[in-house]
């Protein structure tokens, strides 16, 4: 069964209190379709209130996810050892724009990922994205969940990859 890597956001479900409010990865909205395929998905929360997610599902389900607002498919490569040198300039720029939108500076990107992506692997890009995230917290004044807390470690990309084979 095919697999794909995505970046997607989190949804917030607000109750009247902190204990009745929560966030969940938007990929969970596709859990019934993925399970129907006997597929699976796993995530690592990243900056910007987003997650990098590996999904194993049928091609039609992966195609539906890819065109859903709030989801970006990270190339057609799946193996962490795949090089991204075959990406078009447009595809590479789309990934770079998304990385910056997550909260990484252009300087950080340029110091970690070479301008010429001929030898850059999917693993290098995903490890860069999973460097850090911000903790979420309940804000009593606005009665909302904010993602502006202390820097936290992300789940390793290797563990996400290993969980969805």
Describe the structure.
The chain is α+β, with helices and mostly antiparallel strands. It has one domain. The protein is 30% helix and 29% strand. A hairpin with an 8-residue loop joins strand 1 and strand 2. The N and C termini lie close together (9 Å). The mean pLDDT is 93.
Compact summary:
This protein has helices at 31-36, 59-66, 89-102, 106-112, 122-129, 157-163, and strands at 3-13, 22-25, 40-46, 50-56, 71-73, 133-139, 144-152. The protein is an alpha+beta fold. The protein has one domain (3-163).
Q: Tell me what portion of residues adopts beta-strand conformation.
A: 25-35%
Order of helices and strands: EEHEEHEHHHEEH
Radius of gyration: 16 Å
Enumerate how many helices there are, as a single number: 6
Structural class: alpha+beta
Look at the structure and give the mean pLDDT: 93
Largest sheet composition: 5 strands, antiparallel
Q: Termini, distance in Å?
A: 9 Å
Helical proportion, percent range: 25-40%
Number of DSSP E strands = 7
Low-confidence stretches: none
Identify the overall geometry: globular
Number of domains: 1
Map the helices and strands.
Blueprint: E1 3-13, E2 22-25, H1 31-36, E3 40-46, E4 50-56, H2 59-66, E5 71-73, H3 89-102, H4 106-112, H5 122-129, E6 133-139, E7 144-152, H6 157-163
Antiparallel strand pairs: 1-2, 1-4, 1-5, 3-4, 6-7
